[in-house]
């Protein structure tokens, strides 16, 4: 369970230190939402990390069935990449099905993107 009061208390302490150092203050709402989403994401990862080996075994069985029994996960770098990609895809879907979504990035503007494009996306 995420302790939102502790997160908020930590943010107010950080703001007090920043105020004493004459630094710009944090946007408490943005920082709080980010910290809560990170804490929820960590909670979900801790809860479901034990599912990764099971997911990997399912994917290996499916790939051996579709690509043939000679398919070996250690045969090539491409095979390892494919397995890792499919495991991550299913793992993140499992987390999303249980209400754990990846935290949003702190910066909403992607570097190299035109400012007008960034405004249109929001």
Based on the model shown, name its key terms.
0% strand; mainly alpha; 122 residues; 5 helices
Model description:
- The chain contains five helices and no strands.
- With 122 residues, the protein is mainly alpha-helical.
- The protein has one domain.
- α3 (52-67) crosses α4 (77-97).
- The mean pLDDT is 85.
Question: TL;DR?
Answer:
With 122 residues, the chain is mainly alpha-helical. The protein contains five helices and no strands.
Number of strands: 0
Gyration radius over CA: 21 Å
- End-to-end CA span: 31 Å
- Helix fraction bin: 55-70%
Multimeric state: single chain
Q: Whole-number average pLDDT?
A: 85
| Major sheet | none
- H/E series: HHHHH
Specify the number of helices. 5
Low-confidence stretches: none
What structural category do the secondary elements indicate? mainly alpha
Fraction in beta strands: under 5%
Give the overall form.
Answer: elongated
Overall number of structural domains: 1
């Amino acid at each position: 369970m995420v302790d939102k009061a502790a997160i908020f208390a930590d943010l107010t302490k950080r703001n007090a230190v920043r105020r004493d150092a004459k630094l710009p203050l944090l946007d408490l709402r943005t920082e709080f939402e980010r910290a809560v989403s990170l804490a929820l994401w960590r909670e979900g990862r801790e809860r479901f990390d034990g599912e990764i080996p099971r997911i990997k075994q399912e994917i290996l069985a499916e790939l051996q069935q579709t690509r043939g029994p000679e398919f070996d996960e250690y045969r090539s770098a491409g095979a390892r990449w494919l397995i890792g990609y499919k495991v991550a895809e299913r793992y993140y879907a499992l987390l999303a099905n249980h209400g754990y979504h990846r935290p949003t990035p702190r910066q909403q503007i992607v570097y190299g993107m035109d400012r007008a494009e960034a405004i249109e996306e929001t």
